[in-house]
From TrEMBL:
SMART domains: HTH_ARAC. Residues 280-378 form the HTH araC/xylS-type domain. Gene3D superfamilies: 3.40.50.2300, Homeodomain-like. Keywords: DNA-binding, Transcription, Transcription regulation. Pfam families: HTH_18, PBP1_XylR, Peripla_BP_3. GO terms for molecular function: DNA binding. SUPFAM superfamilies: Homeodomain-like, Periplasmic binding protein-like I. It comes from the Bacteria. InterPro entries: Homeodomain-like_sf, HTH_AraC, LacI/GalR-like_sensor, Peripla_BP_I, XylR_PBP1. This is DNA-binding transcriptional regulator.
Length: 386
């Protein structure tokens, strides 16, 4: 079997992990796999290859060769409903709706979308975002690149577009919630805000898509991002290809896989809407240091007021205690690590600020009603429908 999916971006790599998981749970296949980018042409060996199955993105440079081969194929491309092959992809409208919901939870009431008009996945993410904004009775402004960047290979275009985007964002009413069509456009929007003198997230809150951890954490400030269920896409594609190779007919023609959730980082910092500046200062410390054995006394020393005064202001502003806020921050990080990594539970507990895995499990059960292991399985393990 051939897996022709890009390895240059987190989205494609996560899909390949899903394929690998299916093979671990079922009979193994002999896999032909090579490092690729989204723009790579069809490999020269593909025209004469006589394999049993293909998982690929049916991009223009690949589709003709793949169709001529006659080999059972599952398409994992995101260009819309026009694929000639059985297709598994993200539910991009749901991704857009989730981005809008997250920004509204942060208190945003004005919205904008930044994307690429010629990519089907970008258009569908915009459609979901705009539809959710309209359903909430809110307006959404839209910006589209005139000279789209080829994932960082056209630096001159990136510079020119960033200047235009900075001017456009500067002219919109603030505060503003912005959805970028993916994380790389989100990084560009962060750069545009710096050039325009706009504070993130105080003036502009920005959310990207794909949760490319390297890009998101290198960004300044770190970029909040929607987590697509890429591993499930790969898993479902492998399950469907298994059926195609055995039966010669698909069990389904199309599956849109909803996103897993939101990886919350500083670019949509919830503290920006806290009215009490002392509480906001405390929350920033909690956000930044909750995983470092932070305790209530550390927060008190940072803000310089008594315990009773801070607790009273926390209850009046947030209807919870300082200890509750620390616990919530740790749980949020633990959930992210459970979904995004394969770390064992003791390591997840340590990195999230819990003294022991048992403490984390108790807090998890109290807050969610389930154990950390069950949460990981429910949110990461794909459910094959083959």
């Amino acid at each position: 079997m051939a897996v022709l999916v890009e390895t240059s971006m987190a989205y494609g790599r996560e899909m390949i992990h899903g394929v690998a998981q299916y093979l671990q749970e079922n009979e193994p296949w002999t896999i032909f796999f090579e490092h690729r980018s989204l723009q790579d042409p069809a490999p020269p060996w593909l025209a004469d290859w006589r394999g049993d199955g293909i998982i690929t993105r049916m991009a223009p440079q690949l589709s003709e060769v793949v169709l001529k081969s006659g080999i059972p194929t599952v398409d994992v491309d995101d260009q819309g409903p026009k694929s000639p092959m059985p297709n598994i992809q993200s539910d991009h409208e749901a991704i857009g709706a989730l981005a809008l919901a997250h920004l509204r939870q942060q208190g945003c009431e004005r919205f904008a979308f930044v994307g690429h008009p010629h990519f089907g996945w970008s258009v569908r993410r915009r459609d979901g975002f705009v539809a959710a904004a309209r359903a909430a009775g809110r307006r959404c402004d839209e910006y589209y690149s005139e000279n789209p960047v080829s994932w960082g290979h056209q630096q001159a275009s990136w510079e020119a577009e960033t200047e235009k985007l900075a001017s456009w964002l500067g002219g919109l009413p603030k505060p503003l919630g912005v959805m970028a069509c993916n994380d790389f456009v989100g990084v560009q929007a962060l750069d545009a805000c710096r050039r325009a003198g706009l504070a993130v997230p105080d003036d502009v809150a920005i959310i990207g898509v794909d949760n490319d951890v390297l890009a998101c954490e290198l960004a300044y400030p770190p970029l909040t991002s929607i987590i697509p269920a890429c591993r499930r896409i790969g898993y479902e594609a492998a399950a469907l290809l298994d059926v195609l190779m055995k039966r010669g007919r698909p069990c389904r023609e199309r599956l849109d896989v909803p996103p897993l959730g939101v990886a919350v980082r500083h670019s949509t910092d919830i503290t920006k809407k806290v009215g009490d500046p002392l509480v906001a200062k405390a929350l920033r410390l909690i956000r930044e240091r909750a995983c470092d054995n932070l305790c209530v006394e550390d927060v008190l020393a940072h803000v310089g007021v008594s315990r009773s005064a801070l607790q009273r202001r926390f209850r009046a502003t947030l209807n919870r205690t300082v200890h509750d806020a620390i616990a919530e921050a740790r749980l949020r990080l633990a959930k992210q690590l459970l979904v995004e990594t394969d770390l064992p539970l003791p390591d997840v507990a340590h990195r999230s600020g819990f003294a022991h895995a048992e403490y984390m499990s108790a807090a998890f059960r109290l807050a969610t009603g389930s154990a950390p292991g069950a949460f990981r399985r429910e949110n990461r393990k794909p459910h094959a429908q083959a």
